[in-house]
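User: My collaborator sent over this chain with a note saying "see what the structure looks like." That's all I know about it. Can you take a look?
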Amino acid sequence: MTDAAPATPFVADTACMGDHDTIRVRLRAALCADDPWTALYALHTDRPGRLAEVVEELYRSEADRAALRPHLSWYLRSLGEPGDAVLLRLCAEPAFAADDRRDLLRATVERGLRLPAELLRRYGGDPGARWGNAHAGFPAPELVDAMGLCGDPSFVPRLGALLEDDAARGRAALALSRLGAREWTAPIAGRLSEVTGLDHTASPSPWS
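Assistant: Without extra context I'll predict from the sequence alone. Here is the result:
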């Protein structure tokens, strides 16, 4: 009698892609690979239905977030609408440290997502969300971008004031255009030769 071939545990365990534990095991394996970026991309092509949910679970774990934060936020940006929903939920989480909030804010800006104005005002009151250093008093670059994307005209005066600063001027001009602040068209045009800091990640201006 011929002996049966031994079972292959990994194949057996990962056969059902809808299983939460299986997805978590595969995601952790990708994150711990020698080349996690390539492994994450390969996993992404499988598109397991609950992948974004598992990424959120890991991001909410303090230990996993400390070790894997850049990979987790990058992966959420690659997951389309399910990842967007997770990013918005995580951004509303008040327990995260300033570095975590900046990481999430950068990810939402890169996805062109609109965050509530009140949330951005809360972020703006955080000393960790300042441009360059806390004493300069200017919001961090990703916060300026997010103000432009949020659609709330209450940020217009603050963004207009940033036109006076060399470091913030470029981003502030783009944010004002996204908010449709046409009253600032002439002041922006008058400073075009002075604009710096145009390296940004937010979605294109609706005026372009």
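A starting point for your reply to your collaborator: Confidence is low (pLDDT under 50) at residues 1-17, 131-135, 203-208.
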